[in-house]
Design goal:
Blueprint lengths: L1 H17 L14 E11 L4 E6 L5 E7 L2 E7 L7 E9 L3 E9 L1 H4 L7 E8 L3 E7 L5 E9 L2
Antiparallel strand pairs: 1-2, 1-3, 1-9, 3-4, 4-5, 5-6, 6-7, 7-8, 8-9
Length: about 150
């Protein structure tokens, strides 16, 4: 009988303490997947000063897979093609992209050895890549939602 009561007490204690433990997953969110641009922010050096929404069919998508990134933009108001391909790496707070090649219009802008460095705010289904000025203040961000 003592063993049975001890077992019941132990099960009760285990059940009781389980209610106080976190049910949040400790798995870190991943960049792996397909992301679509929601909107962009301009900053006043500290706070968001303006939000630029996608209009007139504008779409921008990024795909991250096994250290590679593919980026594409479609704007019906722009006759140029916009896409690029390269590598990426990230830590908990930073995102680095190095585009290796892209459309004619993007190759005019980028140096294939240039690394684009961003502050990263990553959640499971949302991320922001934030451009910082030379003093480390935010100037601009692109804000994405996971679509796969």
């Amino acid at each position: 009988m003592k063993k049975l009561l001890g077992l019941v007490f132990l099960m009760f204690l285990l059940g009781f303490t389980t209610n106080f433990t976190s049910t949040k997953s400790h798995v870190k969110p991943s960049m792996e997947g397909t992301w679509e641009l929601l909107h962009r922010y301009h900053y006043d050096g500290v706070n968001v000063s303006d939000t630029i929404k996608n209009t007139n069919g504008y779409r921008q998508v990024k795909i991250y897979s096994k250290g590679k990134v593919m980026w594409t933009r479609y704007s019906p108001d722009d006759r140029n093609e916009w896409y690029g391909y390269g590598t990426y790496s990230n830590t908990e707070n930073t995102l680095n992209e190095r585009l290796e090649y892209g459309s004619k219009s993007i190759m005019k802008i980028i140096d294939t050895l240039q690394v684009f460095k961003f502050e990263l705010h990553l959640e499971k289904n949302y991320y922001s890549q934030i451009t910082l000025d030379s003093q480390g203040h935010p100037t601009f961000s692109e804000n994405y939602k996971r679509i796969d």
